[in-house]
Specification:
With 456 residues, this protein is mainly α. It is built from 20 helices and two strands. The protein has a two-stranded antiparallel ribbon. A hairpin with a 3-residue loop joins strand 1 and strand 2. Helix 3 packs parallel to helix 8, helix 10 packs antiparallel against helix 11 and helix 10 runs parallel beside helix 12.
Length: 456
């Protein structure tokens, strides 16, 4: 258990008193009002679960992150039906908002003035005033608002080291959980672990692109952990996530992850990594290709090698999506069409959507322009930049540069993928929030020790 994960004794006594009171009411209902017994029993069990989750809040947040990182909406869509897809995404993002509220309630509010959520709130506010897209309802826009701010909600809580440790433990293990869950379904014959899309791609419990999106923060989390302590287990987690990322067949995430790792190896200082260990890390990365050679008699059977060798310039159909979004943005250039408009630009039953199996922009800059116009896009870009620069300023030098390089890669990745609206964004920004909050805690402890050191 993470230190500080449980409640103080006074809070625990209060929660115990609530449970005792409910149990007493339950016994009274069984004797005096049997018709209320089952209602009170359900209320008692629900209250007990809520209080238990509140007591072990860091652990519950870690479990939520593992679920979000597994992206089970795809598997549930295949096993149950399309209704399960949107319902699962709604539950994951609602869980983020509820857990963030619980964190604020327990540890206090942090006024995060530069949080990117403010940009989405502004676009959500002026959208109805300016005029929503004809295919977008106010209810849909409000749902999009809640979904857009959910990944950043934890930034408004004063998060303790226990919460940061729990999240940073879960992030590099999320892709492994997704692959293990997908392997279990494959063994049961319910859903394949790999899909054929220009070559074999590892899907896990979700879609290969979603799994790749979760691998990115997993790689960065393992990389930072290895830079902090030099422990072999963190290098193993780093290598494992890179192998999973290769097997997803996602070229852009793989390129950005490798770019961040290589820049860290060559340029980012670490007290635990000598030049010899850095060379060993590079050699170990080269050895990761050996299992792939054994896995596929022809490397082109793995999608990433197929595309790199045969069709390097392939945009996977994005060139058919972007013209519609550019045209919609041109019709309302300054304030856009409101949050959620990116979902209605291309009709789900259109020829393009049927051919590509998607109607999302796969370009966040285009989507931001469609939904918020030039002003909204500029506001979001300024907030993202200021948030990362300001909150990373307190980090140790090595962590600070890794985080800033990672977000530069994230900015480039946003040109070709949906990096802000998919569930992997919840994992990425929970990871970033944990890194920043831990850095602030450590900076606070260092500043508290300075006066003591001077007096001594």
């Amino acid at each position: 258990m993470w230190r500080g994960a449980v409640l103080p004794s006074t809070d625990l006594t209060l929660l115990q008193a609530v449970i005792v009171g409910l149990l007493a009411a339950l016994c009274g209902a069984a004797w005096l009002a049997p018709s209320l017994y089952w209602l009170l029993l359900g209320a008692t069990l629900a209250t007990a679960l809520v209080l238990l989750a509140y007591r072990y809040l860091p652990a519950v947040c870690a479990v939520w992150l593992l679920v979000a990182g597994a992206t089970p909406e795809m598997a549930l869509n295949d096993l149950i039906g399309p209704a399960a897809f949107q319902a699962t995404i709604a539950v994951v993002k609602a869980g983020a908002l509820l857990l963030a509220f619980a964190c604020v309630w327990r540890w206090g509010l942090r006024f995060d003035a530069l949080n990117p959520a403010w940009g989405f709130v502004a676009i959500g506010a002026w959208g109805p005033l300016h005029g929503l897209h004809p295919g977008l309802t106010l209810a849909d826009s409000l749902r999009s608002l809640f979904g857009s701010v959910a990944p950043y909600a934890f930034g408004f809580a004063r998060l303790p080291p226990a919460w940061c440790a729990a999240i940073l433990w879960a992030v590099p293990r999320a892709p492994v959980v997704a692959v293990a869950g997908g392997a279990l379904l494959a063994m049961l014959g319910l859903r394949p672990l790999f899909v054929d899309s220009g070559g074999w791609r590892l899907a896990g419990l979700g879609h290969p692109a979603f799994l790749a999106g979760v691998c990115l923060p997993a790689v960065y989390a393992a990389l930072i952990a290895y830079w902090r302590d030099g422990r072999p287990r963190n290098a193993t987690l780093l290598g494992t996530n890179l192998v999973i990322l290769v097997l997803t067949g996602a070229r852009a995430p793989l390129a950005y992850a490798c770019g961040v790792v290589l820049l860290a190896v060559f340029a980012v200082p670490s007290a635990h990594l000598s030049p010899r260990r850095r060379v060993g890390l590079l050699l170990g990365g080269g050895l990761l290709l050996v299992p792939l050679v054994l896995f596929a008699q022809d490397l082109t059977a793995v999608r990433v090698f197929n595309l790199l060798t045969n069709d390097l310039g392939n945009l996977s159909g994005r060139e058919y999506l972007w013209p519609s979004f550019r045209a919609a943005a041109a019709e309302s250039p300054w304030f856009g069409w409101g949050l959620g408009a990116g979902n209605v630009i291309i009709a789900p039953d259109s020829q393009v959507a049927r051919r590509l199996h998607t109607w999302a922009a796969h370009n966040e800059y285009l989507r931001m322009e469609v939904e918020g116009g030039q002003i909204g896009r500029l506001l979001l870009l300024l907030l993202f930049t200021a948030w990362v620069v300001r909150r990373s300023a307190v980090l140790a030098r090595g962590e600070r540069w890794i985080m800033r390089i990672a977000f530069l890669a994230f900015a480039a990745h946003a040109f070709t993928d949906n990096v802000l609206i998919s569930t992997p964004a919840c994992v990425l920004f929970a990871f970033a929030t944990a890194i920043f909050a831990r850095g602030e805690c450590e900076a606070g402890m260092r500043s508290a020790l300075r006066p003591t050191a001077r007096k001594a």
